[in-house]
Amino acid sequence: MFVRQLLVTLVLGTGVAGAFAQTTRVVRLTTADDVGIIATYYPSEQDHAPAVLLLHDLNKDRSGWTDFAALLQRNGIAALTIDFRGHGESTRKLTAAGAVELKLQDFTSRDLQSMLLDVEAAVDWLQAQSEIEKEHIALIGSGFGGNIALRYAALNEDLAGVAALSPGLNEHGIRTDDVVRQLGAMPLHIFVSVDDPFAFESSKRLIAIRRESGIKTADKELTICTGNLHGVAMLKGVKHLPEIMLNWCQQVLSGSPRPKRDEAPAATAPATPPPAPPLRTK
Questions:
Q1: Which residues, including other chains, have CB under 8 Å from residue 267's CB and lie 6 or more apart?
Q2: What is the pLDDT of residues 10-65, one digit of tens each?
Q3: Domain ranges in the chain?
Q4: Angle at which helices 66-74 and 241-254 pack, to 10 degrees?
Q5: pTM: predicted TM-score of the whole model, two decimal places
Q6: From CA 213, how far away is CA 233, in angstroms rounded?
Q7: Facing residues of 94 across strands?
Q8: CATH 3.30.465.10 fits 15-254, yes or no
Q9: Where are the alpha helices (DSSP H) in the chain?
């Protein structure tokens, strides 16, 4: 196995972008089911800026994305990092009886599925910002967050692209194999470590499904890294990976909006979902 080496020329703290005094602000969102989601916004200095929504792994929080979000911001791309429900500061839900505390250890499969509503609230917020180019928003998730990102993107064609670090075929009941073909021509990229067995085999299978679905670019949608780092840990431990991911974001967010997907289902889509793949719960 090998690391796909990509050489890119980037603005990394010099010139106009480097002169921009980086600022952030905390944002409080409310989901459709009344969960309070806490986020950090990294605005761009540009008008009509593209944006990336960054999703963390299970049992993590939005702080894992801090360095990469700042890198995006320095290069003219706004970023929003969120704490999923039951994580970090997103631990309250409003009910008829008042606010209740959300504890991840008490979550059911349905609660985990409801994290899609956290993403929806975040995307809606980004689209409502006057400085954000609404059709140039991408989604990137780490680990379990990558699974959530893929499922959300499959149902929301307005996104400019989606990427996943160390996704699984089935993470705590959140599957990806049954939706990855629905992405159609939406730009996709997967980043994974060769010695991260479950994520590596899952990533190869997801790309194979894309290939079987007739996506001609499928073989270019996977970057394999050496080592065994998982999710955002790769950004600190794999040389040049932050720049490679930034380059992907720049390419995806700089073009014209993609044509909408056909209303009719793809001929290659199965009539019923395939059997669930092996589940990872740890």
A1: none
A2: 334 333 344 456 799 999 999 999 999 999 999 999 889 999 999 999 999 999 99
A3: 15-254
A4: 50
A5: 0.87
A6: 31
A7: 99
A8: no
A9: 15-19, 66-74, 109-113, 115-127, 144-155, 197-212, 233-237, 241-254
